[in-house]
Write a structure and sequence with these properties.
Shape: globular
Number of strands: 2
CATH topology: Four Helix Bundle (Hemerythrin (Met), subunit A)
Order of helices and strands: HEEHHHHH
Structural class: mainly alpha
Strand order of the largest sheet: 1-2
Strand content: under 5%
Oligomer: single chain
CATH architecture: Up-down Bundle
Number of domains: 1
Distance between the termini: 38 Å
């Protein structure tokens, strides 16, 4: 299917897919500047407790714009009866690629640590512990998505459709703002901790929704196996 032949919701989904490699590239440009001091980024503002670069601004704008299309395309598809097989498959895939690739980039490119550490040894230990929790939350979210997708694929294969969980929606509604805020976390410690806390909260919602999907889908798979 050519892009110009798609309906508006599917075009928005495709655009969100295209944003993923661009976001990853911008993260790479940022870290090349930060670690190797290459001219791949530019600091637009410096503060006593942090800084802000041009790639962070671009990543933030691109991620927020792509996240907004997630809500718009679904609304348009349902409102105008434009739900297609392409949208059913690619829309959730685009969401997961955008969120999980951004989480991975935040983790490996050192966005999961505050820009400035305090002088107190106790506070440094507390921050390191918080960082471990944040990184664990990232792993939980990604593992949950693989786990739930495997369950849902098997249930669809057996002719059973499981509707989206409200806890899954809470997860997405929490993670997307959390990621957007954490992208700008180097500006100030408060910004970092707000974004990090939202991601940890999103991981909690991810666990709840994952358990809910497991309890809903597994009995149907067991019955299907007994029928055979």
């Amino acid at each position: 299917m050519k892009f110009k032949e798609m309906n508006t919701p599917n075009k928005l989904t495709t655009i969100r897919m295209i944003c993923v490699p661009i976001v990853i590239l911008l993260f790479i440009l940022n870290v090349l500047h930060a670690i190797l001091d290459l001219p791949t980024d530019y600091v637009v503002a410096r503060y006593s407790l942090g800084s802000l670069t041009i790639t962070q601004i671009f990543i933030f704008i691109l991620f927020v714009s792509a996240s907004i299309t997630d809500f718009i395309d679904g609304h348009l598809a349902r409102k105008n009866n434009l739900v297609t097989d392409y949208g059913k498959i690619m829309d959730p895939l685009a969401d997961k690629l955008l969120v999980n690739s951004s989480l991975v980039c935040l983790a490996i490119f050192n966005f999961c640590s505050p820009a400035v550490y305090p002088n107190s040894l106790e506070m440094i230990k507390w921050i390191q512990g918080f960082r471990v929790v944040l990184l664990f939350a990232v792993v939980i979210v990604i593992f949950r998505d693989f786990f739930v997708d495997a369950l849902r694929m098997q249930s669809v294969k057996n002719g059973i459709v499981v509707p989206a969980s409200k806890w899954g929606k809470f997860k997405t509604a929490t993670l997307m703002p959390g990621i957007a805020i954490l992208i700008l976390g180097s500006v100030h410690a408060v910004v970092f901790y707000v974004g990090a806390s939202l991601i940890i909260l999103g991981a909690i919602f991810a666990c709840i929704s994952g358990i809910q999907y497991y309890r809903t889908i597994m009995p149907t798979l067991d019955r299907n196996g007994e029928d055979k």
